[in-house]
Amino acid sequence: MTYLIAIIAGIIGAVAGWYAGDAAVPSLVDSMALLPDIGQIKSMIDPGVAREVAASVGLLIAVWLALRIYAGHRTFRALAWRGLAVILAVVTLTVGTARVGAVVFDQFGMNAGALSVAFEIKLPVTAAMPQRPADVQVELSTDKNQTIAMVSEIARERDVAIVHGTVPILFKTAQREILLSLPGEPVRTFRLRLLASPMKNAEFGPWQGADAADGGPTTSGRNGKTVDEVAIRYLVY
Fold it and tell me: How far is it, in rounded angstroms, from Cα 154 to Cα 132?
């Protein structure tokens, strides 16, 4: 019973540490950015590593408290080998659960890794500048599902409006399209040149013109020259 309590406490501590680390990283990065001497460290902080470290600390503290308070162990030797046994049990249980979950996701054709696409879309010069992200709708459409993207901001670079956003990749399929809807503009379609199970990218790919606007092609003539100014580039993370 003692080990079961310690294992449950360890799992709860790890989860609590994970979320605590996730919540603390943005505040830490913002506060460090205010300091001129170490503001550059902001770009070196990896949120994923911070979450893992916080989860590990939460696991260790929870197991130590369970063995010390509930089981009454006080010596370092008693806490050390019992704590190691509990931590190994928690790790084994976590890895096994993750493996089973990955198999289940694979059977349903879903991406267990929860990858996402970050995109930037250059709006045509003739289009009215959207006042807020809510004025723009971006959707990822596949042969398996449709997902509304999160538009984070609309920036202006050299008199060109650029929409920034992200959308999760939930299913394994090579048939993916980004649909861009603007007030008073035709719905533009971009085919994503990605594998069914894409790899992560560190940098954005080249700019890619729209493949269709309201169902019609955006090229003219035999040379296939693009006549629409809108373009997209993206990466997988």
Answer: 7
Of the candidates 172, 182, 175, 116, the residue with the CA atom closest to the CA atom of residue 141: 175
Tens of pLDDT along 143-200?
989 999 999 998 888 778 899 999 999 888 999 999 999 888 889 999 999 998 888 8
The DSSP symbol for 37 reads T
pTM over cut 0.85: no
Work out whether strand 116-122 and strand 160-168 pair parallel, antiparallel, or are unpaired. Answer: antiparallel
Residue in the block written with tokens 């409006």: 161
Which residues make Cβ contacts (< 8 Å) with residue 112, sequence separation at least 6?
A: 101, 102, 105, 106
Helix (H) or strand (E) holding 93: helix 76-107
Q: Which two tokens stand for residue 4?
A: 């079961």
132 strand-pairing partners? none
The structure tokens listed for 124 are 């045509």
